[in-house]
Specification:
Layout (H helix, E strand, L loop, with lengths): L4 H8 L18 H6 L15 H12 L9 H12 L5 H11 L5 H8 L15 H8 L3 H9 L9 E2 H10 L12 H14 L12 E2 L1
Antiparallel strand pairs: 1-2
Helix pairs in contact: 3-4, 3-5, 4-6, 5-7, 9-10
Length: 210
Amino acid sequence: WNRNYEDWNNLRSPFRGGAKGSKVIVTTRNTQVALMMEPSDNYHHSLEPLSDDDCWSIFVQHAFENRDIQKHPNLKSIGKKIVEKCDGLPLAAKVLGGVLRSKQRDDEWEHILNSKIWSLTDTECDIIPALGLSYHHLPAQLKRCFVYCATFPQDYKFKETELILLWMAEGLIQPLEGNKQMEDLGGEYFRELVSRPFFQRSGNGGSRFV
């Protein structure tokens, strides 16, 4: 972020061309960027972590998608403790809910709750622990396909068919069941990564993912 004034001025200039009375919302992960945009009345809004109740609501949507939560009191109790470890991060609640959606036993949920990854320091683990857990529980073939996406630049938008063809070209899809076509198997891999959710749609109902 060691930019000079001219660079920052170039960054701000497109936002000054709006009609009188129009408003522009700029989002950023960096407070310095927010201040350099010179918001009106020097006001910028910092998003706070979600409450445990809101985080729990997101978790339930994914972990209990096809189950009646009242019929699984033990899972509910363990899930509440898992959500507390998410520190109010909606992405963490979402991905862990996706991991636990297919897990039925108490010990599988307790394994997530008691994982050592929660206690790692920032120097030992530079990603959100929940994302590390979610990746750890991927089948090997899905890990390979997801890791391939590291070749894309950040925030790159891709189509399902485009990525499946790339996976096929790299030999990452190996048919295991009868005469199942590689394209069909690749589609299953892709949908599984969406449901986890390592991939999500870009925009409202578009055909591209990030």
